[in-house]
Design a protein that fits this description.
Elements (H helix, E strand, L loop, with lengths): L1 E6 L2 H11 L6 E6 L9 E2 L7 H10 L4 E4 L2 H6 L1 H7 L3 E3 L7 H4 L1 H11 L6 E4 L2 H10 L9 E5 L8 E4 L2 H12 L11 E5 L4 E10 L3 E3 L4 E2 L2 E3 L3 E4 L4 E4 L6 H21 L5 E11 L2 E8 L6 H8 L4 H10 L13 E9 L11 E2 L2 H5 L4 E5 L2 E4 L2 E4 L3 E9 L2 H14 L5 E2 L6 H5 L3
Parallel strand pairs: 1-2, 1-4, 2-3, 4-5
Antiparallel strand pairs: 6-9, 7-8, 7-9, 10-11, 10-16, 12-15, 13-14, 15-18, 16-17, 18-23, 18-24, 19-22, 20-23, 21-22
Helix pairs in contact: 1-10, 7-8
């Protein structure tokens, strides 16, 4: 098969790495790709948001199958355009991708179909939102208030306000257009959920859902979960908090009802469904949905996957998951994100990265590029999150040791990382 992967991050490198190993893959392209993806796929200089150019390339090159990595093109309708052109695609339609493209849509869907999530309301008016925040003082007493931009904000559109004044300021900032642009033209104000967060994934073919393995990521930029939210500074799988019993509850109470709800709403979901969860004392609750593999969770999932990825992606697109199954390594996979100085607010681009070969020589380590470009023989930082140093080992502690050994072999003064990835799992004694 001739396959095109759309995207340029660590998630797409991990997908390309897995797809390139499939006997079904005869030729692999990635648009636009990065310096690491060049090692396993032919990179094409087409931006991931340039839908006409992507469809045109797929037609000219007789692409058999397209895998869309990021959420932006999916929300914009890339899967619809490819389907209209007769090209098979892994990824939901624009109507189904609203599960990520509009937090308000998802919250309303949860309310309508009884899917457990935090209490909330939606607003486009600053005054109405501020009044609502003031009224919640007695209801959400002594708890933070969560303010979310309704649209796509690259994983950063969430403010956890610790005071009424901070919450109102966040609403004013978003709705005035100063923060997150059009993504913040509407906001969701919701209850703060207490518990442990987890990332849960399922392949969905419109009717059936096949659970994948769970993971945990680290959203805050600094050690000890300090500093601003990011797209994710590291991840590991399995997640000890997602027991088999919890996983079945998630499928029965959240994922399967969502699949049925989307079909009932005339927007059947096909692709990977990523549920961000809070494991509360009252059971798992949905924080939000994403319409694509997580980043950096995808990197640890691909490391643990024993099965050939391509048949699973094809079965998802073909509506054939009813009797499908996947096999996984029992070992722990862990990834450490190396980010450019200044991330997440204003990362500095252009610094040279050395020592990647030495780092990749550590036993069990694979390095996925997230924001890099090649300049002759040099590898340069070209984004905020730049490298995913990923290791697999029999235990969490050993996977972490290997990952940080590899990190320490990388010569990149312009980069930084968290040093406490998987602290929850280690604290739990796994």
């Amino acid at each position: 098969m001739r396959i095109l992967v759309v995207g340029s991050g660590g998630r797409e490198h991990a997908l390309c790495w897995a797809i390139a190993a499939s006997p079904l893959c005869d030729k692999l392209y990635c648009a636009p790709g990065n310096a690491g993806i060049e090692e396993v796929a032919e990179c094409i200089a087409i931006g991931q948001e340039d839908l006409p150019a992507l469809v045109g390339f797929a037609q000219r090159e007789h692409i058999d199958f397209v895998v869309v990595g990021p959420e932006g093109p999916l929300v914009a309708g890339l899967a619809d355009r490819l389907a209209e052109a007769g090209i098979k695609v892994f990824g939901p339609s624009a109507a189904a991708a609203r599960l990520e493209g509009s937090k308000g849509f998802t919250k309303d869907l949860c309310r309508k179909y009884g899917i457990p999530t935090a209490g909330y309301e939606r607003f486009t008016d600053v005054g109405a939102a501020a009044s609502y925040i003031r009224r919640q003082g007695n209801i959400w007493k002594d708890q933070p208030i969560v303010i979310k931009a309704d649209g796509l904000a690259a994983g950063k559109g969430v403010i956890i306000a610790t005071s009424e004044a901070e919450a109102i300021a966040a609403v004013e900032d978003m709705l005035s257009g100063n923060r997150f642009g059009a993504a913040g033209s509407a906001v969701v104000i919701e209850e703060f959920l207490q518990g442990e967060e987890a990332s849960f994934f399922a392949l969905v073919d419109g009717t059936h859902a096949l659970p994948l393995v769970a993971a945990q990521d680290h959203k805050r930029v600094g050690d000890g979960d300090t500093g601003p939210n990011t797209g994710g500074m590291g991840a590991y799988s399995p997640a000890p908090c997602v027991t088999p019993q919890i996983a079945e509850r998630v499928m029965a109470e959240i994922v399967r009802p969502t699949v049925r709800a989307m079909a009932a709403e005339g927007a059947p979901y096909r692709g990977v469904l990523f549920a961000g969860l809070m494991l509360t004392p009252n059971g798992p609750k949905l924080i939000e949905y994403n319409c694509r593999f997580g980043d950096p969770e995808c990197q640890v999932l691909m490391m643990r996957l024993k099965s050939d990825l391509m048949p699973a992606l094809i079965a998802t697109a073909d509506g054939a998951l009813a009797h499908f199954d996947l096999r996984w390594h029992d070992e722990t996979a862990l990834t450490v994100v190396m980010a450019a100085e200044g991330y997440p607010d204003s990362p500095k681009k252009g610094s040279e990265i050395r020592g990647l070969d030495a780092a990749g020589a550590v036993d069990g380590v694979t390095i996925f590029h997230a924001g890099t470009r090649r300049d002759g023989e040099r590898i340069l930082a070209n984004g905020g999150r730049v490298l995913n140093v990923t290791a697999m080992a029999p235990s969490v502690a050993e996977a972490r040791r290997r990952a940080y050994e590899a990190v320490d072999r990388i010569d990149w003064p312009g980069g930084f990382c968290r040093r406490d990835i998987a602290w929850r799992a280690l604290a739990a004694g796994t």
